[in-house]
Design goal:
Length: about 300
C-alpha cells in the first residue's frame, strides 16, 4: 500500500525462486503484498484487503512488459507495464476478508514472465505465495486521539500493540491533501510504542499511521533482505501481510499571543526554548536585537 516502496527497501524475505535471470534486466526485487487499513481501529471501507505486486528493476534493459500467472493457470491474469518508472499491480477489487481475497488470489506458485516489445521471453521467475496468518492484533493509537484538533506542533505519538502481532513496524505522518509524507520511519522492532517525528505545521490536517507486518521467513537478527543470485543476477523476493491503523488530526493554530519563555514560537515552553537560551547566554541584545533570545516575551 502507501508504504510499500519504503518497506521494500528495508525488510524482506527469500522464497523459492526458479528461472533464468538475464543480466540486462537487472532485477532488484519482486514484492507480493496483501494489506488492509483500519481507521481509528475500525476497518476502513475505502481500504479493505487488497493484493499488490511490485517489481523493482535497477535496469529494465529491453523489458517491455511482465506477464503474471496465478497458481495452476495457463494464461496470465495481469500484464504489468512501466508507468512513471514503476512496475506495479494493484487488485481491481476490494475484499472484506483475507479469505475472500485468497479466493481470487490463491496461495501457490506465481510465474513472472519478463518479455520484450516483440513478446520474446527474456526471463521467467516463479515465486511461492504461501498462506500467512493475519496479524493477531493491530496497533492501537493512544495519542493523539482520532479527530483531535489541538495536537501540539511537536507531538509524541504513542500506541500499544501485541508483542506477537507481527515481525516489523512502520510509522508515518502524511498530509492527506497532498499525499506528501513529512516524516517516516521503518523499524524492525515490535517494542517501539512511541515516536516524536519533529515539528509539524500549525492549523494543518494530518494522518498518522502505524502498520504491522507479518513476513514469511522473517530474520529478526538481521532485519535486512536476503539476497539471491540466479544466473549472475542478484535480487530479493518478498512477501508479507500488512495491517495498518490510521488516525487523523489537526494541529494547533499559530500562537495568538506571546507566551513568556516561548523562544521558538511553537506555543509551548520546553527544552527547545531552554536550548535557545543556553546557546545565547549573555548575548548582547543591543547588537543582536532580532535574536530569538532577545525578543521580549
Amino acid at each position: 500500500m502507501k508504504k510499500l516502496i519504503t518497506i521494500c527497501a528495508v525488510v524482506g524475505l527469500i522464497m523459492a525462486v526458479t528461472g533464468t535471470a538475464q543480466a540486462d534486466l537487472d532485477i532488484n526485487a519482486i514484492c507480493i503484498n496483501s494489506c488492509k487499513d483500519l481507521l481509528d481501529g475500525i476497518p476502513d471501507t475505502s481500504n479493505p484487503w487488497v493484493f499488490e505486486v511490485w517489481v523493482e528493476l535497477d535496469d529494465p534493459g529491453s523489458l517491455h512488459h511482465i506477464d503474471v500467472t496465478k497458481p495452476g493457470a495457463s494464461t496470465p491474469f495481469t500484464t504489468i507495464y512501466e508507468v512513471d518508472g514503476d512496475w506495479f499491480y494493484h487488485s481491481p477489487s476490494f475484499y472484506p476478508s483475507l479469505g475472500d481475497l485468497r479466493a481470487d488470489y490463491p496461495t501457490g506458485d506465481y510465474t513472472f514472465e519478463f518479455r520484450d516489445s516483440g513478446d520474446i521471453l527474456l526471463d521467467s521467475v516463479t515465486l511461492n505465495y504461501p498462506d500467512l496468518d493475519e496479524p493477531g492484533d493491530f496497533a492501537h493509537i493512544t495519542s493523539p486521539l482520532h479527530g483531535a484538533t489541538d495536537v501540539s506542533l511537536n507531538p509524541t505519538f504513542t500506541w500499544t500493540i501485541d508483542s506477537g502481532a507481527g515481525d516489523a513496524l512502520d510509522m508515518g505522518v502524511e498530509d492527506p491533501c497532498t499525499s506528501e509524507v513529512f516524516y517516516e520511519s521503518a523499524l524492525v522492532s515490535m517494542t517501539t510504542t512511541s515516536w516524536a517525528p519533529g515539528p509539524l505545521l500549525p492549523s494543518h490536517d494530518y494522518e498518522f499511521d502505524v502498520s504491522v507486518y507479518n513476513i514469511k521467513g522473517w530474520q529478526p537478527e538481521s532485519g535486512l533482505p536476503t539476497m539471491m543470485t540466479v544466473e549472475g543476477d542478484t535480487f530479493t523476493c518478498r512477501l508479507w501481510i500488512e495491517c495498518g491503523n490510521d488516525i487523523r488530526f489537526t494541529t494547533v493554530p499559530e500562537c495568538l499571543f506571546d507566551m513568556a519563555g516561548d523562544l521558538n514560537d511553537d506555543c509551548k515552553v520546553d527544552f527547545h526554548d531552554f536550548a535557545i537560551m543556553a546557546a545565547n547566554w549573555l548575548i548582547d541584545c543591543d547588537t543582536n536585537p532580532s535574536n530569538p533570545a532577545c525578543v521580549p516575551k
